[in-house]
Amino acid sequence: MILFPTAKINLGLNIVEKRSDGYHNIETIFYPIPLCDALEIKNMDENFPSATDCDLKITGNKLEGNEQDNLVVKAYQLLKRDFKLPRIHIHLYKQIPSQAGLGGGSSDAAFMIKLLDERFRLNLGYAEMERYAANLGADCAFFIRNEAAFAEGIGSNLSPMDELQDLLQSYYIGIVKPPVAVSTQEAYAHVLPQRPATCCKDIVKQPVETWKNELTNDFETSVFKNYPQLKEIKEELYRQGACYASMSGSGSSLYGLFKESPKDFSSSFPNCYTFAGKL
Questions:
Q1: Bridge partners (DSSP) listed for residue 8
Q2: Which amino acid positions bind ATP, per UniProt (predicted)?
Q3: Furthest-apart CA atoms within the chain: distance in Å
Q4: Parts of the chain belonging to CATH 3.30.230.10
Q5: d(Cα 71, Cα 96) in Å, to the nearest integer?
Q6: Known binding-site residue numbers
Q7: With contact defined as beta carbons under 8 Å apart, do 84 and 62 qualify?
């Protein structure tokens, strides 16, 4: 069986307060976009020589680190504690860039839970799958339903934003990921938590053309200071005709929303990973 984990963007991101446990409470809107990985599982033959119950092969974009530390393996191990799962082969084709603020790893983990649920008829239901996903990462639960949602707390308290689908369905998106890695810990270290005058969930109910001056990502100020090339990319997205442009998450990818399909998009951003498509 195969599924296609999608990336997400953040429409606004405000760091509203620091928690007693060291984490931060945020307000943001997660929105799925048509940039996908591919995730496939097959039962492992009982005679296949493997040191683990979960054999992972990754192709496409290269990922650093031990494959057994990948979130798709952790998702399998998490469910295996409660269910009798067979040994499996996993093939993960990576197209969503990592360290980009696009939630690729979290999406892979959530879709792995959905894939195991469907393949082995675990009959978990959305709420139970979201509970499992939340154990793997703050934004993992979002990818279970994979629909526009307002996120609060550490990012796992979700409320549907169905009206956004109608608002944005005619728009195009352009993604730019330069060869820069921004540490999430570093990004949080330079942010002063505060509540915005207007919540992002109210701003996005306005026409997209009004978002530029109101819908903000609190990470941009400090991240742009340390990585000025990211600010330049955002400015170029506006020059290319974007109605709205922003950094996604803590970066380092930036996106623009366009009324028409952006022309010669990749050539405008040399040495960067780019993606353009319809929302």
A1: 32
A2: 97-107
A3: 62
A4: 2-160
A5: 14
A6: 97-107
A7: no
Which residues carry a binding-site annotation for ATP? 97-107
Query: Looking at this protein, which amino acid is placed at residue 95?
Result: Q
Cβ atoms of 116 and 76 within 8 Å: the answer is yes
pLDDT of 169 higher than 80: yes
The answer, as to whether pTM is greater than 0.90, is yes
DSSP label at 267?
G
Q: List phi, psi (to 5°) of 255.
A: -135, 155
Residue-level pLDDT at 123: 97
3-state helix, strand, coil in the chain (%, to 5): 30, 30, 40
Catalytic residues: 8, 139
One CATH from 3.30.70.890, 3.40.440.10, 3.40.109.10, 1.10.10.10 for 162-278? 3.30.70.890
Q: Count other C-beta atoms under 10 Å from residue 167's C-beta.
A: 16
The predicted pLDDT at position 72 comes to: 97
Q: How far is CA 208 from the centre of its chain?
A: 21
